[in-house]
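REQUEST ID: PR-0412
SUBMITTED BY: lab tech R.K.
PRIORITY: routine
TASK: structure prediction, single protein chain
INPUT:
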Amino acid sequence: MPPVRAPWEDRLDEIDQRTRIVERQQELAREAAAASPPARPGATVQADENGFSISSPDRQYQIRFKGQLQVDGRRFFTSDSTLQSSDTFLLRRIRPTLDGTLLGLVDFRITPDFGNNTTAIYDAYIDTHPRPWLRLRAGKFKGPLGLERLQADQDLTFIERALDSNLSAQREIGLELWGDIANGLIRYEGGVFNGNADNGLTDVDSNHAKTFEGRIFIQPFNTASLSFLGRLGIGIAGSTGNEKGVSTLSAPNPWMGTFKSDGQQSIASYLTSTTDITQTVVAYGRHSRINPQLYYYNGPVGLLAEWIKEHQNVAELTTMGATFGTGVYNNSAGHVTVSGALGGDVTYEGLKPHKPLDLAAGTFGALELALRYDWLNIDSAAFPTGIDPAKSISKAKAYGLALNWQLNRNVKVDGDYQETVFTGGAKTGNRPTEKVLLGRFQVAF
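STATUS: complete
OUTPUT:
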């Protein structure tokens, strides 16, 4: 008779068999893993003070979602009933932005604006960058003119840009070569554009001629050995081109700008009429601008200054719409802004708190106090055939005080007081001095 097996021996055989099965399964799994390509890492989702983004692992493909919301209030101190009716709360800017990168070589941006109860496209461009010193941008974007104009809206020291912004276009459409040389020691910009009227945002050109614009900006302290000296920027920008306005009673497009005060009130405009074509002035010929620029930032203090002078050829019209007289207007404007901060650094890219607001930790963000002097001079040759002196000023001088609270890089509270003295602009004497208090709550990311 065969020997009788103990129960524990059968149990050992069962465990051994299961162990062999598990070992074989593991061996098969290892063979399958070796034969399969390695798993690719997934996309990266990120949310921080710079916005929200989705990026491929190699960062060759990216989508970034950004936005800006500014809620303003304006209070005019005057007995003028017209200005009193301008006291208002408003949604100054509502700008969602979609940024992206494709192939690690091409960037794009699309920025509409829904503020002031209007809809417009402010930025829509493609930017290729094979090298940091060689970039090509095509579409609608800010041209090279205006140092303060080139600042992002959320980074401005004052709620509204200075009077010299009246002599540069809000946006241009065209092609621009630009880049940074020697790690930003020199920046160059040069392009061909449709050209635009002063303070204009028009998308379509009025004639075949185009405008050439360029800028050279040097930052001599932008090296590791000189960084302790702060950040100094010196530059000059310019533009020139032939512009030709069109004015008919049905569709006037004189291609001439309208000038606004620091309180965003219309203070000067060229003659135009939809009932009498002889009461219209249009751009006709050369329009050139020159724009020296300067800034200096070092820790809690900052300075930004610039000046713009323009040469604008114009023409008056006959009853048949043909030109019968031409002239040249030379307008100029500029500003100087100085600022100091407590708890943060003043930079061209905005006030940067050392520590964000945190009540538990006892930190408050950063406070900024700023002073500004800005001015606008309209050529006397424009009066009275091009501009009605009873309705438009010839000179403006403004003094401003700003107090800003940057809670963190995304939230900001601003308060400005602006006082502007005018020459002309009334049926007799001068337009009343504009005294306005501006406030803003801002979220930007």
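NOTES: The mean pLDDT is 91.
REVIEWED BY: pending
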